[in-house]
Amino acid sequence: MNFNITTLLPLSELVISKGIQDWISLVSHVKNLPYGRNENREDLSLVIKEGKGSCSSKHAFLCEVARENAIDNIQLVLGVYKMTSANTNILHTEENFGLPYIPEAHCYLKINAERVDVTSETASFFNLKDAILYEEIILPSQVAAYKVDFHKKFIKNWVKEERITKTFEEVWSAREACIRYLSES
Question: Is the pTM of this model over 0.85?
Fold first, then answer.
């Protein structure tokens, strides 16, 4: 699927100013940006301005550009999956933290019926599809507070329901260590 980026709404105008004229070129550009958290989760333009992004910011940015251009078959998905070293380039959860996996909130796109992950050059939804625990469609504006709050509640429930011997704080700390490792590698 491809479309020309033509609207002069803020994110599309920013993309055009960088010489990116169509969806395929934009997706390729974003996919090749380094993984990293942006200074402000709510400012999606920072993906381009800072030249980096997380799964949340990259996919929310792409979804919002599609929305600005009246493309309605591209949706932003908030999924929770069983994050392990087998499906994500992180520390070994069992060895390092005594956890079989960490429930990780992850954003990706749903284009028609296909799920697309452009978090990095090597990202592929195929690597996660069998580990998905939960999915919902969200708005790009929900990648900030809503996603973080939802993720924390999910982990708190998981600790309780699965009778995990770690506290929420210990699991969240392990998750943060894994994300730091991912950002550095």
Answer: yes
